Amino acid sequence: MSREKVLVTGGAGFIGGNFVQYMVDRYPNYEIVNLDLLTYAGDLTKHKGIEAKENYRFVQMDIADQPAIHALFEAEKFKYVVHFAAESHVDRSITDPGIFVRTNVMGTQVLLEASKACGITKFLHVSTDEVYGELDFDPTVFFTEETPIQPNSPYSASKASSDLLVRAYHETYGFPMNITRCSNNYGPYHFPEKLIPLTISKVLNNQKVPVYGDGKNIRDWLHVWDHCAAIDLVLHEGVSGEVYNVGGHNERTNLEVVKTIIAALGKSEDLIEYVTDRLGHDKRYAIDPSKLEQLGWKPTYTFETGIAQTIEWYVDHSDWWESILSGEYRK
C-alpha cells in the first residue's frame, strides 16, 4: 500500500524517539522515516520493537549536509516534517557553542530550504521554553506565546535562532509551519545526563546526586507521552504560522525533584551533593499552555503519576541506561 511519508528528525533521541514510536503505532497509514545522525545521545536500541514494522524506516544523515538532505527530500516526497534534531544539553553548549550553531541553526535552515523546495504540507519545529529566558519566582507569571524571546545560554540562543528562521520562512514565503515550545520533558529513554534519569541512575547505584547551587531553580515538568500527543494535535490541527506552548502544570524545584526520587527509591537524602551552580542558570520556567488546551489538548500525567511511572520504567530497564553509561550502546 502507498503511505504518506512523515519525516521525523532526531528520532533516535529522547523526545523524538518517543514520538517515532507513538506515530508508528498510532498511524499505520503513515510511513514514519526516522532521520538521525546518531551522535552521542542518539540510540536506536529503543526502537527494537518497531524496526521490523512496515511503516517505519531509519535513515542516518546529518541535517546540516545540504546536498544529502535535498536529495532525500526530492526522492521521498514527504508530506510532513517534524523537526526534533538538535544539540540540547545546556552544559555542553557552554563549553562548545559552535556545534549548537551548526546543528540547531544551520541544520534547521537546510531542512527549511529542502521542505520549501518540495512543497511539504506542514513543517513542525519542536522548540523549548528556554528561548523565553527566565521568570522570577512569582507563581502568577507564566510564559505565553507572546513572551519576548530572551535566551540566556548558547543552547537556548541557538534554538531561538532556529525558531526565528522558521517564522521568517512563513512570513516571507508563506511556508506552512508551526512551532511548539515545551517545558522540561521526562519519561522513558531519557538520556542519563539530564536531571531525572541522572538522579534515578545515581540513587539506584548509591552514588552522590549533584544538585546545582541551592537547588531552588524551578522547572515545569511535562511527561514525554503527553508531549507526543500535543505535537500530533498541532501537526494535524494547528493553524499554520502559529506557536503553541506545551506545559505540564507541574512546577517543582530541582531539589524537590531529587528528593521525590530518593524517597520513592527508599534511599537517604545524604546522597545529595550540592555543587557549584551552572553559569547563567535560569531561575524558573513555567508555561501557560491555554492556547494549546483550546485546540483540544490537556496533559494526562500529574507529576506524581508521571514520576512514579518513570522511576518504575528505569528500575525495569536498567539494562538500557547501564549500556548508555558504559558506552556499550555505541558498539
Automatic annotation (TrEMBL):
EC category name: lyase
EC code: 4.2.1.46
GO molecular function, one term: dTDP-glucose 4,6-dehydratase activity
Domain NAD(P)-binding intervals: 7-310
Pfam families in the record: GDP_Man_Dehyd
Cofactor (UniProt): NAD(+)
UniProt-listed CDD domains: dTDP_GD_SDR_e
Keywords: Lyase, NAD
UniProt catalytic activity: dTDP-alpha-D-glucose = dTDP-4-dehydro-6-deoxy-alpha-D-glucose + H2O
The keyword Lyase is annotated on this UniProt entry: yes
Example of a GO biological process term: nucleotide-sugar metabolic process
The family this protein is said to belong to: Belongs to the NAD(P)-dependent epimerase/dehydratase family. dTDP-glucose dehydratase subfamily.
Protein name: dTDP-glucose 4,6-dehydratase
Species: Paenibacillus donghaensis
